[in-house]
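We store chain and fold; example below:
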Amino acid sequence: MATTSTVAVGAGSVPGGRRRRDVNTLPLMAPSVVLLLLWMIVPLAMTLWFSFQYYNLLNPFMTGFAGLDNYRFLLTDRALWTSMGNTLLLVGWVLVITVGGGTLLAVLFDQEFWGRGVARLLAIAPFFVMPTVSALIWKNMLMHPVNGLFAFVSRTLGLPVIDFFTNFPLTSIVIIVAWQWLPFALLILLTAIQSLDSEQKEAARMDGAGPLAMFFFIILPHLGRAISVVIMIQTIFLLSVFAEIYVTTSGGPGLASTNLAFFIYQRALLDFDVGLASAGGIIAIVLANIVAIFLVRSIARNIAD
């Protein structure tokens, strides 16, 4: 009588007797890891090297090791500090508008009303518009002092026409960038609100909590982590805003709307001073890392609490 025997194969094993966890995945990961390191380290190393060199494309005879001269020149240049101040103002006001407006819109879109799906789609749509296209729309169709929509409304109401990019350049940039990033904050915060336990809100209503009490004592504390994530992600991207400034004001009038990214562009591609531009890039990297460390620690503390 023939008998059959069954050999049990472990869930963690593969044919050939080797377990899955014993397979060496390093050769599979190495190409992508090496490419990523080269992608980051080579440009950073070149930027660091050029920041210590005299390298001006308009003056090829002035070369050699500059030491800290490029950094010394930048740190005593009023334009650098003005651009850093504009950068902080731009980032700060955009965060205030997007986080505040995103929170209020998230609460609104969490309610039931007719056409909510279409309204959500329209509210999120600006996030998918390219920065250059967005800047052109605001510059030529909305804020133009002659042909813009705002000028038409002002003339219709008998009010003086405002030339936004001349009189309020940085404010105009803040409005454009905030319009682009408000949908991102709305999407993250709306998702966080929808994860709030409905029984908790119902219990608060039964205890007599009104809309304001519900918002300040239940919804807003629940959004704490999501708001921290929005602030961290947006800050990283807002520190490098460039296209909106380039298309609309070109950093002017004067230095009124020049941020750190545009300041580096001016030194590199307008003054052709690679050494100064590289030193400015290193300063920007240091500033971005300080901000990133502060935000990461704040978020970690928020999550721990």
Residues 1-14 have pLDDT under 50 and may be disordered. Residues 78-109 form the longest helix (32 residues).
